[in-house]
Amino acid sequence: MLCKQWMQNLEAFQAAIESDSSYHSTLTRSLSLVLDEFYKNLHSVGVSAVSGTGMEAFFSAIEASADEYMDNYKADLDKRWAEKERLEEELRQENMDKLRRGMEKSDGNTMVLSRGLEDEGVGEIVMDEEEEEFELFSEEEEKDEA
């Protein structure tokens, strides 16, 4: 239960690590505010590994967390997914319109649909290092050299 107390009470946690001056405790002190914020939104339950005490509370917490996920997070994820699908459909439709207009203008002639990075306004990619040449050897050539 000491862990649970530290999770719920930042001052008790800091008092417990105050006497230690190791690197580990210094790092833990630095991260304690982040941990405090993390534990505020985390459901926790004490469970005994020896006697199994607290298992009912554990399963109740899991059920409550599943309900919270379905009510809050899944609804938000579904909205994001629908928005992503809508934007992708708009992009597909825009590309089809662009293709249709291009085909009408070309009168059956060859046309360039995309120039890759040039369409995005990105210039040529310049390599700073010289390109190295590698020779490819077959197994027969290696045997001949040996």
From TrEMBL:
Q: Which UniProt keywords apply?
A: Cytoplasm, GTP-binding, Hydrolase, Nucleotide-binding
Q: What class of enzyme is it?
A: hydrolase
GO MF terms here are: GTP binding; GTPase activity
Cellular component per GO?
Answer: cytoplasm; nucleus
Q: Disordered: where is this region? A: 93-124
Q: Where does the protein principally reside? A: cytoplasm
Spell out the Basic and acidic residues composition-biased ranges: 93-107
Q: What is its EC number?
A: 3.6.5.-
UniProt-annotated location(s): Cytoplasm; Nucleus
Q: Which InterPro entries match?
A: Gpn (IPR004130), P-loop_NTPase (IPR027417)
Any Pfam family from its record, for instance, is: ATP_bind_1
The record's comment on protein family reads: Belongs to the GPN-loop GTPase family.
Instruction: Provide the function of this protein.
Output: Small GTPase required for proper nuclear import of RNA polymerase II (RNAPII). May act at an RNAP assembly step prior to nuclear import.
Quaternary structure and partners: Binds to RNA polymerase II.
User: What is the protein name stated in its UniProt record?
Assistant: GPN-loop GTPase
